[in-house]
Amino acid sequence: MRFLTWSLLLPTVVAKIHAERDYTSPPLAYPVRFINGGKSLLVGESTTEEVVLTRVDLADGHRTPWKRIKTEARNGLGIAVTPDLKYYAYAVQRYSSDLYVVDNLR
Questions:
Q1: How confident is the model at residue 2 (pLDDT cuts 50, 70, 90)?
Q2: What is the residue range of 58's domain?
């Protein structure tokens, strides 16, 4: 039943989030989890410098900022949050490499 509720509510909630804000370059908004017994949705929005986690009340659409996580990840984070919002964890992928220039290699 929760999957059915999630799949029906998600497009409406995300559309409402984007309709309420005037973006020149809209961040990528994505659901993180239902909270408050399914009455609210925790939504992540990625910008170029951070991910903003916001609580969205599903009854009236009221938004309350919860956390701001500074990161260079532009495609969102893998976030896990406990239902009571007491603990959270996230993973960020970083790719680093070294480039060496070699002359006269035989």
A1: very low
A2: 2-91
